[in-house]
Amino acid sequence: MCLAVPGKIISISEENGLRTAKVSFGGAIKDINIQWLPEAKTGDYILAHVGTGLSIIDEEEAEEAVKTAKEFKDMQDNL
Questions:
Q1: Which structural domains are found in the chain, ordered by start?
Q2: Is the per-residue pLDDT at 43 higher than 70?
Q3: Element (H, E) at 11
Q4: The whole model's pTM is what?
Q5: 7, pLDDT greater than 90
Q6: Is the separation of the CB atoms in 30 and 23 below 8 Å?
Q7: What are the DSSP calls for 18-58, one per residue?
Q8: How many CB atoms are closer than 10 A to CB 70?
Q9: Alpha-carbon distance 14 to 3, whole Å?
Q10: Are 49 and 2 a contacting pair, CB within 8 Å?
């Protein structure tokens, strides 16, 4: 099983034919390969796994995923 994390694209660049984005994951900024998401644009939310963008999601889906992850963490902290 893998875990994809939602983040918001804050900028996009292309160098040597490779399309990458700076993506904010709750304020942590990471460089993500978005080569498989040619339609992705600044402001979009994506799911990323191991430095690669997997899909574009809407803001509501992103917020729900973050909420679920926080609830899961809280449950683990209370064990």
A1: 5-77 (2.30.30.140)
A2: yes
A3: strand 5-15
A4: 0.85
A5: yes
A6: yes
A7: EEEEEEEETTEEEEEE-TT-TT--TT-EEEEETTEEEEEE-
A8: 11
A9: 26
A10: yes
